[in-house]
Amino acid sequence: MNASDFAASLDATNLKLDASDGEICALSDEAAHAGYASVCVYPSSVSICSDILYNSKAKVCTVIGFPHGRSSLESKREEILRAKANGANEVDIVMNYAALRAGDKIIVTEEIVRLCEVARESELLSKIIVETCYLNEAQKLTALAICEQAGADFIKTSTGFGSGGATVEDIKLFADNRKGSIKIKASGGIRTLSDALALIEAGAERLGVSAASALLAELKGERFKASDNDNY
Q1: Which among 76, 140, 156, 183 is annotated as catalytic?
Q2: Is 105 a catalytic site residue?
Q3: Is the Cα dihedral 30, 211, 171, 198 positive or negative?
Q4: At 60, is the secondary structure helix, strand, or coil?
Q5: Which of 11, 92, 170, 195 is catalytic?
Q6: What domains lie within the chain, and their CATH numbers?
Q7: Is 57 labeled as catalytic in the residue annotation?
Q8: Which of 70, 71, 140, 204 could form a disulfide with 75, with the two C-beta atoms 3.0–4.6 Å apart?
């Protein structure tokens, strides 16, 4: 994989609890220069990124119902609409995975169908975070089926705040069992180039990473002093 294609697969992420406006601005400048797919930030930072990336190929992504997924349907809907108004292009929506674990498939399906509909009406690309570390295999496949039924653009593994992140096994599970055109985003704990390439090889089309510069530098064979990133 060449550097340009690799960069275009990255959602460069800063969801640190103490992220500053200066760090968000720097990440946006980096994304525009490097050609990342998007920057992924908290809703309050969307307008900052949107101003910087207005004429860039890099998109602005934000998180909805993050990180627990237990917000009400109406609350998540309002977050999506506000994100659109502030200049977002993509939304990463946390599924109510607690309800899925409890067996409330109808409730979860209704929520995801409606939220994906809101995203489409707002011309936003939708990625549904299912938090794989808390799901068994049957629940992961149910989550995949719900995302496909709802017409989500992506199913995404993790928030980065759970007990585990993306695994090759989970990416293969989704890739081998998807019925249509839904894509896969791997996120959580992707710290080395070998990790990233293994996930892409398994079927991931996007990677959510907090160390995009380091990974890209490693691909190019450059020296890079990694910063202190969170677990995303």
Answers
A1: 156
A2: no
A3: positive
A4: strand
A5: 92
A6: 3-220 (3.20.20.70)
A7: no
A8: 71
